[in-house]
Amino acid sequence: MDSKFVNQFTRTFEVEKELYRYLHLTSPPMCAALIIIGTVMVIDVAASIVLGMNYANMAVFAMCIILLFVLFFRYFSAIQRGKERFAEDTNNKGKVTVTSTVTVDKVISETSDRETPVEVPFKNVKKVFVTEHYYMLYTDEKLVYAFKKGAFEKGKEEEFLPFIRNRIESNKRRRT
């Protein structure tokens, strides 16, 4: 198969941190949830000031604080588990060289700590999302494959995202 894009970079724990930040704090569903919680808290505080402090308002405010605590606790515990898993995956080396190749049909991921490459057909890729420094492909197996921005050795980076989105959409149409 002819490769359309090749991306190579040294993977450190920064990739996981950016992934967890996206999943737990900045993804569209999480932003919507945080906005709703913030709005409820502001309305609750305003109602408490205007109507006087009552037990219902205090309970709503306390529930919002507890919910925010749970969300941030999940984020920080995911970071901790991710650090442990990353250290285990890299044999405590702290970094791995990743070479990802994209063909018309699949993504091939090779790392310096694995003997055989992993091949992911596009039919298994559910979505692509963009973080500050990476393009990330999310698969049916709930695995994420990262492509570092600015690290493309083959193919034009500005064509990468439209190509991936087109492949995902065409596979969705075939399934339905």
Describe this structure in words.
With 176 residues, this protein is of the alpha+beta class. The chain has 2 domains: 5-11 and 96-175, Roll (PH-domain like), CATH 2.30.29; 17-89. Helices cover 52% and strands 25% of the residues. The chain is built from 4 helices and 8 strands; from the N terminus they run E-H-H-H-E-E-E-E-E-E-E-H. Strands 4-3-2-1-8 form a 5-stranded antiparallel beta sheet, covered by helices on one side. The protein has a 3-stranded antiparallel beta sheet with strand order 5-6-7, sandwiched between helices. It is elongated and about 70 Å long.
CATH class of the largest domain: Mainly Beta
Q: Classify the helix fraction into a percent range.
A: 40-55%
Mean pLDDT: 87
- Can you tell me the CATH topology of the largest domain? PH-domain like
The poorly predicted ranges are: none
| CATH homologous superfamily assignment of the largest domain | Pleckstrin-homology domain (PH domain)/Phosphotyrosine-binding domain (PTB)
Q: What is the CATH architecture term of the largest domain? A: Roll
What's the overall geometry? elongated
**Spatial order of strands in the largest sheet:** 4-3-2-1-8
